[in-house]
Design brief:
Blueprint (H helix, E strand, L loop, with lengths): L11 H15 L1 H10 L15 H10 L5 H13 L8 H6 L2 H5 L5 H15 L13 H8 L7 H11 L11 H10 L8 H8 L6 H12 L6
Helix pairs in contact: 1-2, 2-12, 3-7, 8-9, 10-12
């Protein structure tokens, strides 16, 4: 799927207005959340995110199962080992795992980071081409790396690639928000979540942003 040229990209202001209008018409819950939180735009998803795909994935692995503060601290310590910048795949593979562990990373996470670096170095994961692939292929390539599951791939699609129609069915924050906002007795399973989210297409990413905002929380909360 070829990448659109800069001149052919949809105007983000018009796109966000169309997305908000679509979600407002989708159901009463979305209409209410839009009224409560204003016209959020998908471009906000890129804030405070690493600018390159490799750095984003490194940070994603480091931050797994950690609070935002703890993840930032440990990631910062790891960067200090590489003169304050994210290590290249070769630098990471050449580094002493015990020194990386001293930054606060567990052995499994170090193995995950090394597997990511090996995939990139071997050309099995061509990060520069991910933006040209459909969502399903991006997920398939990312989840081939140890330590990157479907949830992490969904977050990459939403926050790094800014894809408009992603529904992270495994995100606890989204499940909890849907349960609360739609008055469900129990947390929705993936099948029910997909059904509830069907009217949000093709702007499920933005719908999730509203749901996270309703919890005043970050993804995965």
């Amino acid at each position: 799927m070829p990448r659109p040229s800069a001149g052919s990209r949809t105007n983000p202001v018009k796109a966000s207005r169309k997305a908000v209008g679509t979600l407002r018409a989708a159901d009463e819950v979305m209409a209410r959340l839009i009224d409560e939180h204003g016209a959020l735009v998908r471009e906000d998803l890129r804030r405070e995110r690493p600018g390159d795909a490799y750095g984003a994935l490194l940070r994603s692995i480091v931050g797994q199962q950690l609070s935002t503060k703890a993840a930032a601290t440990i990631y910062g310590r790891m960067l200090e080992l590489f003169d304050g910048h994210a290590p290249t795949p070769l630098q990471l593979l050449a580094a002493d795992p015990d020194k990386i562990r001293a930054a606060g990373l567990s052995r499994p996470k170090i193995n995950y980071l090394r597997d990511l670096a090996q995939h990139v170095e071997d050309g099995e994961l061509e990060l520069e081409l991910l933006d040209e692939l459909p969502d399903e292929e991006v997920i398939e390539q990312l989840t081939a790396v140890k330590g990157i599951g479907e949830w992490s791939a969904h977050m990459f699609l939403m926050f790094h690639l800014s894809r408009p129609d992603v529904l992270p069915v495994g995100d606890q924050g989204i499940r909890r928000a849907v349960q609360l906002q739609y008055g469900l007795r129990i947390l929705p399973d993936p099948k029910r979540l997909e059904k509830i989210a069907r009217p949000w297409r093709p702007y499920r990413t933005l719908a999730c942003l509203y749901l996270w905002s309703s919890l005043d929380n970050k993804p995965g909360a």
